[in-house]
TrEMBL record:
Belongs to the Arg-specific ADP-ribosyltransferase family. GO terms for cellular component: extracellular region. It catalyses: L-arginyl-[protein] + NAD(+) = N(omega)-(ADP-D-ribosyl)-L-arginyl-[protein] + nicotinamide + H(+). The keyword tRNA processing does not apply. Gene3D superfamilies: Toxin ADP-ribosyltransferase, Chain A, domain 1. Keywords: Glycosyltransferase, NAD, NADP, Nucleotidyltransferase, Secreted, Toxin, Transferase, Virulence. The lineage of its organism: Eukaryota, Metazoa, Chordata, Craniata, Vertebrata. It is found in: Secreted. It holds the Pfam family ART. GO terms for molecular function: NAD+ poly-ADP-ribosyltransferase activity; NAD+-protein-arginine ADP-ribosyltransferase activity; nucleotidyltransferase activity; toxin activity. This is NAD(P)(+)--arginine ADP-ribosyltransferase. Its main location: secreted. Its EC number is 2.4.2.31.
Amino acid sequence: LVSLDMAPDAFDDRYEGCGAAMAAALPALHQLESRQSSLYARSWAKARAEWRSWGSLLTPLNPDQATALTALGLRDLYEAFNEAVSTAGRSRQEYRDKFRFKALHFLVTQALGRLREARGARCLLVNLDLCGVRYVVWPGNTVRFGFFLLAPWTLTRATCPGKSTRLQVYTCHSGDFHLHLQHLNKEVVLIPPFETFKVHTVTEAGDETRILLMHEGTLNNYNCEWLRGDSTGDSTGD
Protein backbone atom coordinates (compact mmCIF):
# COMPACT_ATOMS: atom_id res chain seq x y z
CA LEU A 1 0.00 0.00 0.00
CA VAL A 2 1.31 3.43 -0.98
CA SER A 3 -0.02 6.66 0.49
CA LEU A 4 -0.86 9.31 -2.12
CA ASP A 5 -0.59 12.63 -0.31
CA MET A 6 1.04 16.05 -0.66
CA ALA A 7 4.55 14.57 -0.78
CA PRO A 8 5.93 17.03 1.81
CA ASP A 9 9.55 15.90 1.38
CA ALA A 10 9.68 16.44 -2.40
CA PHE A 11 11.98 18.99 -3.98
CA ASP A 12 9.59 21.05 -6.08
CA ASP A 13 11.48 24.15 -7.27
CA ARG A 14 9.91 25.94 -10.28
CA TYR A 15 12.75 28.47 -10.80
CA GLU A 16 10.29 31.33 -11.28
CA GLY A 17 12.12 34.59 -11.93
CA CYS A 18 15.59 33.03 -11.98
CA GLY A 19 15.73 31.05 -15.21
CA ALA A 20 18.48 33.19 -16.72
CA ALA A 21 20.61 33.10 -13.58
CA MET A 22 20.23 29.33 -13.29
CA ALA A 23 21.10 28.91 -16.97
CA ALA A 24 24.30 30.88 -16.34
CA ALA A 25 25.19 28.60 -13.42
CA LEU A 26 24.27 25.45 -15.35
CA PRO A 27 27.57 24.59 -17.13
CA ALA A 28 29.59 24.51 -13.91
CA LEU A 29 26.82 22.67 -12.05
CA HIS A 30 26.50 20.08 -14.82
CA GLN A 31 30.25 19.45 -14.83
CA LEU A 32 30.33 19.09 -11.05
CA GLU A 33 27.46 16.61 -10.95
CA SER A 34 28.87 14.62 -13.87
CA ARG A 35 31.98 14.07 -11.74
CA GLN A 36 29.92 13.23 -8.65
CA SER A 37 27.66 10.67 -10.34
CA SER A 38 28.82 8.16 -12.95
CA LEU A 39 25.16 7.24 -13.56
CA TYR A 40 24.33 10.84 -14.43
CA ALA A 41 27.42 11.20 -16.64
CA ARG A 42 26.76 7.94 -18.54
CA SER A 43 23.06 8.65 -18.95
CA TRP A 44 23.65 12.19 -20.17
CA ALA A 45 26.19 11.04 -22.76
CA LYS A 46 23.85 8.31 -24.01
CA ALA A 47 20.85 10.65 -24.15
CA ARG A 48 22.82 13.32 -26.00
CA ALA A 49 23.95 10.75 -28.58
CA GLU A 50 20.38 9.49 -29.00
CA TRP A 51 19.05 13.02 -29.41
CA ARG A 52 21.68 13.89 -32.01
CA SER A 53 20.95 10.69 -33.95
CA TRP A 54 17.35 11.65 -34.73
CA GLY A 55 17.65 15.40 -34.75
CA SER A 56 15.93 18.13 -32.80
CA LEU A 57 12.36 16.86 -32.75
CA LEU A 58 11.63 18.15 -29.26
CA THR A 59 11.12 21.73 -30.36
CA PRO A 60 10.79 24.34 -28.87
CA LEU A 61 13.44 22.97 -26.53
CA ASN A 62 17.12 23.80 -26.59
CA PRO A 63 19.62 20.90 -26.89
CA ASP A 64 20.21 20.60 -23.14
CA GLN A 65 16.49 20.55 -22.34
CA ALA A 66 15.84 17.96 -25.05
CA THR A 67 18.72 15.82 -23.78
CA ALA A 68 17.38 16.03 -20.22
CA LEU A 69 13.95 14.74 -21.26
CA THR A 70 15.53 12.00 -23.36
CA ALA A 71 17.63 10.94 -20.37
CA LEU A 72 14.49 10.34 -18.32
CA GLY A 73 13.64 7.53 -20.73
CA LEU A 74 16.61 5.60 -19.32
CA ARG A 75 15.17 3.50 -16.51
CA ASP A 76 18.16 3.56 -14.14
CA LEU A 77 18.43 7.34 -14.26
CA TYR A 78 14.65 7.85 -14.08
CA GLU A 79 14.38 5.76 -10.93
CA ALA A 80 17.44 7.23 -9.20
CA PHE A 81 16.46 10.79 -10.12
CA ASN A 82 12.89 10.46 -8.87
CA GLU A 83 13.94 8.71 -5.68
CA ALA A 84 16.18 11.69 -4.97
CA VAL A 85 13.54 14.26 -5.98
CA SER A 86 10.99 12.70 -3.62
CA THR A 87 13.20 13.29 -0.56
CA ALA A 88 15.49 16.23 -1.40
CA GLY A 89 12.92 18.74 -0.12
CA ARG A 90 13.18 17.56 3.48
CA SER A 91 15.42 20.53 4.17
CA ARG A 92 17.58 23.12 2.44
CA GLN A 93 20.62 21.20 3.67
CA GLU A 94 19.35 17.95 2.18
CA TYR A 95 19.00 19.62 -1.21
CA ARG A 96 22.30 21.48 -1.17
CA ASP A 97 24.48 18.69 0.24
CA LYS A 98 22.91 15.42 -0.95
CA PHE A 99 20.86 16.09 -4.09
CA ARG A 100 23.07 15.17 -7.06
CA PHE A 101 20.63 16.09 -9.82
CA LYS A 102 20.33 19.87 -9.50
CA ALA A 103 21.20 20.50 -13.16
CA LEU A 104 18.84 17.80 -14.43
CA HIS A 105 15.99 19.03 -12.20
CA PHE A 106 16.35 22.56 -13.55
CA LEU A 107 16.50 21.44 -17.19
CA VAL A 108 13.50 19.12 -16.92
CA THR A 109 11.43 21.77 -15.13
CA GLN A 110 12.31 24.40 -17.74
CA ALA A 111 11.58 21.96 -20.56
CA LEU A 112 8.12 21.22 -19.17
CA GLY A 113 7.39 24.93 -18.99
CA ARG A 114 8.33 25.43 -22.63
CA LEU A 115 6.30 22.44 -23.80
CA ARG A 116 3.28 23.66 -21.86
CA GLU A 117 3.60 27.14 -23.37
CA ALA A 118 3.81 25.65 -26.86
CA ARG A 119 0.68 23.57 -26.21
CA GLY A 120 -1.27 26.54 -24.91
CA ALA A 121 -3.86 26.26 -22.16
CA ARG A 122 -4.96 22.75 -23.18
CA CYS A 123 -4.99 20.18 -20.40
CA LEU A 124 -4.44 16.45 -20.91
CA LEU A 125 -6.17 13.29 -19.66
CA VAL A 126 -3.59 10.60 -18.94
CA ASN A 127 -4.30 6.96 -18.12
CA LEU A 128 -1.72 4.85 -16.33
CA ASP A 129 -1.78 1.23 -15.13
CA LEU A 130 0.46 0.40 -12.17
CA CYS A 131 1.00 -3.28 -11.36
CA GLY A 132 1.67 -4.36 -7.80
CA VAL A 133 0.68 -0.96 -6.38
CA ARG A 134 -2.34 -0.02 -4.30
CA TYR A 135 -2.70 3.67 -3.39
CA VAL A 136 -4.28 4.75 -0.12
CA VAL A 137 -6.27 7.90 -0.87
CA TRP A 138 -9.70 9.35 -0.19
CA PRO A 139 -12.12 11.29 -2.42
CA GLY A 140 -11.84 15.02 -1.78
CA ASN A 141 -8.18 14.91 -0.77
CA THR A 142 -5.66 17.19 -2.45
CA VAL A 143 -2.55 15.31 -3.54
CA ARG A 144 0.54 15.56 -5.71
CA PHE A 145 3.01 12.95 -6.91
CA GLY A 146 6.14 14.68 -5.61
CA PHE A 147 8.29 13.39 -8.47
CA PHE A 148 8.35 13.58 -12.28
CA LEU A 149 5.82 10.99 -13.43
CA LEU A 150 6.45 9.71 -16.96
CA ALA A 151 3.35 8.15 -18.51
CA PRO A 152 2.50 6.86 -21.99
CA TRP A 153 0.23 9.16 -23.98
CA THR A 154 -1.76 6.12 -25.17
CA LEU A 155 -2.70 3.58 -22.50
CA THR A 156 -1.42 0.06 -23.05
CA ARG A 157 -3.58 -2.14 -20.87
CA ALA A 158 -1.34 -3.96 -18.41
CA THR A 159 -2.03 -7.53 -17.33
CA CYS A 160 -1.35 -7.54 -13.62
CA PRO A 161 -1.26 -10.88 -11.73
CA GLY A 162 -2.04 -9.24 -8.39
CA LYS A 163 -3.09 -5.90 -7.02
CA SER A 164 -2.99 -2.94 -9.37
CA THR A 165 -4.03 0.69 -9.71
CA ARG A 166 -5.42 2.46 -12.74
CA LEU A 167 -4.84 6.19 -12.54
CA GLN A 168 -6.74 8.68 -14.64
CA VAL A 169 -5.04 12.05 -14.31
CA TYR A 170 -6.39 15.31 -15.72
CA THR A 171 -3.20 17.36 -15.82
CA CYS A 172 -2.63 20.97 -16.85
CA HIS A 173 1.07 21.50 -16.01
CA SER A 174 2.54 18.49 -17.78
CA GLY A 175 4.50 18.32 -21.00
CA ASP A 176 3.85 15.90 -23.86
CA PHE A 177 6.60 14.93 -26.28
CA HIS A 178 7.94 12.13 -28.46
CA LEU A 179 10.57 10.06 -26.67
CA HIS A 180 13.12 8.46 -28.99
CA LEU A 181 15.48 5.82 -27.65
CA GLN A 182 16.78 2.54 -29.07
CA HIS A 183 14.32 0.59 -26.92
CA LEU A 184 11.53 3.16 -26.85
CA ASN A 185 9.76 5.28 -29.43
CA LYS A 186 6.45 6.70 -28.30
CA GLU A 187 4.47 9.71 -27.22
CA VAL A 188 4.72 10.34 -23.49
CA VAL A 189 3.48 12.81 -20.89
CA LEU A 190 5.60 14.07 -17.99
CA ILE A 191 3.80 15.35 -14.89
CA PRO A 192 5.82 17.61 -12.53
CA PRO A 193 6.11 17.19 -8.75
CA PHE A 194 4.52 20.57 -8.00
CA GLU A 195 1.14 20.03 -9.72
CA THR A 196 -1.71 19.35 -7.29
CA PHE A 197 -4.83 17.29 -7.90
CA LYS A 198 -8.20 16.79 -6.26
CA VAL A 199 -9.12 13.15 -5.78
CA HIS A 200 -12.43 12.94 -7.61
CA THR A 201 -13.32 9.26 -7.30
CA VAL A 202 -11.84 6.06 -5.88
CA THR A 203 -13.44 2.76 -6.88
CA GLU A 204 -12.52 -0.86 -6.20
CA ALA A 205 -12.97 -3.59 -8.80
CA GLY A 206 -11.52 -6.88 -7.58
CA ASP A 207 -7.77 -6.45 -7.21
CA GLU A 208 -7.85 -3.16 -9.13
CA THR A 209 -8.22 0.30 -7.64
CA ARG A 210 -9.35 3.03 -10.02
CA ILE A 211 -8.54 6.63 -9.11
CA LEU A 212 -9.54 9.78 -10.96
CA LEU A 213 -7.40 12.84 -10.22
CA MET A 214 -8.48 16.28 -11.44
CA HIS A 215 -6.09 19.22 -11.76
CA GLU A 216 -6.45 21.64 -8.85
CA GLY A 217 -3.41 23.94 -8.91
CA THR A 218 0.26 23.99 -7.99
CA LEU A 219 2.32 24.01 -4.81
CA ASN A 220 6.04 24.53 -4.55
CA ASN A 221 7.81 24.98 -1.24
CA TYR A 222 11.06 25.94 -2.96
CA ASN A 223 11.90 28.53 -5.60
CA CYS A 224 15.35 29.38 -6.97
CA GLU A 225 16.84 27.46 -4.05
CA TRP A 226 20.31 27.02 -5.55
CA LEU A 227 20.62 30.80 -5.86
CA ARG A 228 19.07 31.71 -2.52
CA GLY A 229 20.63 32.84 0.73
CA ASP A 230 19.42 31.51 4.07
CA SER A 231 15.66 31.72 3.54
CA THR A 232 13.18 29.64 1.58
CA GLY A 233 9.95 30.58 -0.06
CA ASP A 234 6.53 29.07 -0.53
CA SER A 235 4.52 29.59 -3.66
CA THR A 236 1.07 28.40 -4.64
CA GLY A 237 -0.88 28.92 -7.81
CA ASP A 238 -3.09 27.41 -10.46
